[in-house]
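User: Hey, quick favor. My workstation is busy. Could you predict this chain's structure for me?
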Amino acid sequence: MKELDAIAEEVTQATALSSSSRWSEAAEAWRRVVELSMQAGELEQARAGVNERIEALRRDDRPGAMLVVLKQAQGLAEGPGKVRLDIQIIAALADAGQLKAAASTATELLSRTTHPGLRVVVADTLCGVLLSRGDVLGLSGLVERLSAEAQGPAAIAATFRRAQLNRLQGRLEDASDALMRVHQTLAPHRSAATAAGAALTEIADICLIKGENDEAFAFLHGAAGHFAEDGRRAATFQLEAQRAMAVLSSGAMTFLPGLLDNAVAYAEDRGLPLLEARCRLARGLCRAASGSEAAWGDLDAAVLLADHAGAPILAGRARLERFLAGWGPEGAEPQLEELRDAVEHLTGDRVWHTRAMTVLATRLAKRRPGEAIELAGRAVARFQGMGLDADEAQARAVLRVV
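Assistant: No problem, here it is.
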């Protein structure tokens, strides 16, 4: 009885910490619950405690620690519980920047999962991984499967992933309309706060692409409210990085780099390389705008982090932005090589790939006019198709100079 009383006391304390969103302390409290439960042979309580500990670590944005606990938990799980743990492993691998491992694990899991509801969750998780890896072909095929299999409320996941695919392929209006529907569906549900916020950040990104800066700020403000509901600091810090990029894009003012110091430190401490890359890119550009020599370190780190994680679109964007900010390599040929690398890495993102092509064409106009004409001509046709008039005008300007 003393053992059961001790377990009950620990459960009460751990539950209180979770309810107060004190996730780091809660994770440790649930560890004690699991330890005591295993010693007492209370396997059901141990399973429940493990699940609570995993949730606390997820909320505390600690994918490395989460992976350790998830692998331990597999020995306690039964039936569908094992598949749910595998799904969480995939998400943790992705957060930890292990995208190749996440993709292979998810692909294998999808091939052996037969439960319709779980298949949808696995497919949705894999979509997120393929998106980060810039695998548009794989994402396109998976979105079709997800759309065919997702039924009822789960269909909103397929709508969201198709919208992300449309955004990558340059179908901006289709993407924006679908994302708005996703947000309207999810916004009333507190449990879907993070997903609702993600839909708004995607819309904000499209607004920035189109030069609609005021609208972008409004959507980012709305997303911040959703992320505050969920309490995930990683999402909030990513939003701060996006807001900084929006401020720089608007040309209205310089976003103080110090405002992103906590974001960079948090991502580095938690082992979140993709978040760190985005935050360092934003801080580096802010530092460049303010004339700080520290810009080089951030912009270089953003490229290296994205490369190491296997996130080519993020790596390509970091290369392009570093070049445009004036912090790329010195010398004409190294600069051209940098731009060619950016173009290659951005292949999966039609908008930014075409923008990188335009910048490369501009630099080639006097040195290699034939190549410049070919690149600029393709860019004009693409921008026309995407309805990006300002970008089209820039590409046409290259043709007039050649």
